[in-house]
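I am hoping you can look over what I have pasted underneath with an eye to the fold:
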Amino acid sequence: MENTIVECIFDMQFESDYVVENFLSIISNIDGFENIIKLPLHQVPEVIRKNDPNLKLQPLYEITSLKNRDYKITLGDNVIGIAILKSYTSWSKSFYPQIEKIFTEILATNKINFISRVGLRYVDFLESENIFLDKKVNLSINGEEITEKKVFLKIEDSLDDIDYNKIITNHVKYKNSKNSGSIIDIVTSKKDIPTNGLENIFQTIQKLHVINEKKFKEVIGDNYVRQYKL
C-alpha cells in the first residue's frame, strides 16, 4: 500500500541566554547542514521578535545539507525544528535517528536553559478516500448521518501526560494532488521538560511517537493501518 504520510515534523521550543546564531554554528557542523537561507522574519529586530509571542517561535533560518538531502532544519530565536523531505519509511529508520543526532549535539552544549515544549506532527493524506465512510468514525446530527458531507473534525485531549490535537477532514485536496481525499493531521506534544537528563528527553520524544501512532490507528480503517511508523 502506498505511504500516506505527506508531512512529518518534530520541533523543540526552548529558553536560552544565547542568540540564535550560536545554534546556527552548532547545526552547521552536523551532517553538512551548511546550506543556510535567511527567512523574511530575520529582518525584524531581535528585541521585537523576542517580545512578540507570535514571532518568537517562528523560524528565522532554513538549513539543508548538500550531503544529506533528506531533511530540513528550521531555526528561530526559541525553536528548532526538523522535517523529513524524502519518502517516509519508518520512525526508527527514517526520522528518529536524525532527531537524536541533532538534538544530542545541541543539548550537549548546555546553551538551552529549559525546554518549554516538544512536539511531533504527522499529516496523512488518503487520496480518493472519505475517512468518514469507515465505521470507526460515525458522525450524525439529530440521527442523520453526515458522513457524505464535507466535515472538519477537531479533537483535543491528553493521554499518559502527552497532549494531542487531532484534525480529520474529508473532500479536500493536499497541495497539488489530482484528486480530493481525507487528511488526518495529528500533533502530540509535551510541555515543560527539564534539560538535566538526555535520556528523559529522548524517552519523551519516543512517547510522542507512540501516542501519535495510537491516535492514528483509532480512526483509520483496518485496510489503512499504518506500517510506516513502526
